[in-house]
TrEMBL record:
The keyword Transferase applies. This is Aspartate aminotransferase, cytoplasmic. Its EC number is 2.6.1.1, 2.6.1.3. Belongs to the class-I pyridoxal-phosphate-dependent aminotransferase family. Its cofactor is pyridoxal 5'-phosphate.
Length: 405
């Protein structure tokens, strides 16, 4: 008998199973609203013009032997991390000016979360973390596999109002144990698309300071949510500069640069002082060495090149506005069609939400009908990727949702 004959099958990862089912579906009307990846008006992936320009430049640099395929340092390409941290915290950040903010290149947002979680557990001895209800499907796995012993939840989505459960979140944070790690979605909450207002963020900061809780931001959509890099980073900047928190922030460049398969990310640190940065980096070096040793270069060179070139940077910001603007128009279009069809219920939450996803409020039976009968693929919790809507399929999706409800 084989040594491996008793290995059981693991449950499939829902979002990737949806993508596979979609690809294998022969139906002409099929629509993919599952995976979180941007699509243009024709339903195709979009390689940003600035990305193409940087890739051309990188090829030229290789021909000139000015760059090569040697290993990057374990902590990554420093000019990339410096630029990414500056993009997050802003050019006028007190933390940057005082030398107490820095970044470490990571394998996209997932890798940044993992590196930060392992550091929290091993170096800060933190064992309890909180996630929103609901949250991104990978948060729990990342932190539990990093050594955390207990996953707890704070209320976030109010299914009756189809909005933010602010009072529930506040109550749960008030009852959190000191030193617990609180995972906060910096902008465009996944999967709900509902964010706290600035006044609510201030109240959240009050409770977290009072209870001595540690903020760990997950920032996957800066610029991609509203089209404004500064607006989308408001919460992180408020915690870092206005309130003086020490914090971690996992940044992903998958969405706002369209670099999904390059695994380009950054783990930003904001500290009280710069005194211990050398020691912190030495421990991060040990963590990363035991995980993947060295990060990839291609994606981070693209991002660094754009962030540090004023012309490319401005062009990139225009591309962000195009992507976020198209998604906003699809939100509005879906809501208008559902209301025109007199679909039962209220649908203003679709346009109240922000970012790539909409938490539709549809129950599993409705979702099952859409998937099995209408060949519209979405998560079982009712989350859709608004980026998957386009002028060719939005009427069909709205009519199908109307039937399902």
């Amino acid at each position: 008998m084989s040594l491996f004959s008793e290995v059981p099958a693991a449950p499939p990862i829902e979002v990737f199973k949806l993508s596979r089912d979609f690809r294998e579906d022969p139906c002409d009307k099929k629509v993919s609203l599952g995976v979180g990846a941007y699509r243009d008006d024709e339903g195709k992936p979009w390689v940003l013009p600035v990305v193409k320009k940087m890739e051309k430049k990188l090829h030229e640099d290789i021909d000139k032997n000015s760059i090569n395929h040697e290993y990057l340092p374990i902590l990554g390409l420093e000019p990339f991390s410096t630029a990414a941290t500056k993009m997050l915290l802003g050019t006028n950040s007190k933390a940057i000016q005082e030398g107490r903010a820095f970044g470490v290149q990571s394998l996209s947002g997932t890798g940044a979360l993992r590196n930060g979680a392992e550091f929290c557990n091993k170096m800060l001895k933190q064992t309890v973390f909180y996630v929103s209800t609901p949250t991104w499907g990978n948060h729990n796995s990342i932190f539990l596999k990093s050594g955390f012993l207990e996953a707890r939840k704070y209320r976030y989505w109010n299914n009756e109002s189809k909005g933010f459960d602010f009072e529930g979140m506040m109550e749960d944070l008030k009852n959190a144990p000191e030193n617990a790690v609180i995972i906060l979605h910096a902008v465009a909450h996944n999967p709900t698309g509902i964010d706290p207002t600035q006044e609510q963020w201030k109240a959240i900061a009050d409770i977290m300071q009072e209870r001595k809780l540690f903020p760990f931001f997950d920032c996957a959509y800066q610029g991609f949510a509203s089209g404004d890099l500064d607006k989308d980073a408001w919460a992180v900047r408020y915690f870092a500069d206005d309130r003086g928190f020490e914090l971690f922030c996992a940044q992903s460049f998958s969405k706002n640069f369209g670099l999904y398969n390059e695994r380009c990310g950054n783990l930003s640190f904001v500290l009280k002082s710069s005194d211990n940065i050398v020691n912190i980096n030495s421990q991060l070096t040990v963590i990363i060495r035991g995980a993947y040793s060295n990060p990839p270069a291609h994606g981070c060179r693209i991002v660094e090149g754009v962030l540090n070139d004023s012309n490319l940077y401005n062009e990139w910001k225009e591309s962000i506005k195009i992507m976020s603007g198209r998604i906003m128009s699809m939100r509005q279009g879906l809501r208008e069609r559902l209301e025109k069809l007199n679909t039962p219920g209220k649908w203003n939450h679709i346009t109240d939400q922000i970012g790539m996803f909409s938490f539709t409020g549809m129950n599993p039976d409705m979702v099952s009908y859409l998937v099995k009968e209408k060949h519209i693929y979405l998560l079982s919790n009712g989350r859709i990727s608004v980026a998957g809507l386009n002028p060719s399929n939005i009427d069909y999706v709205a009519e199908s949702m109307n039937e399902a409800v």
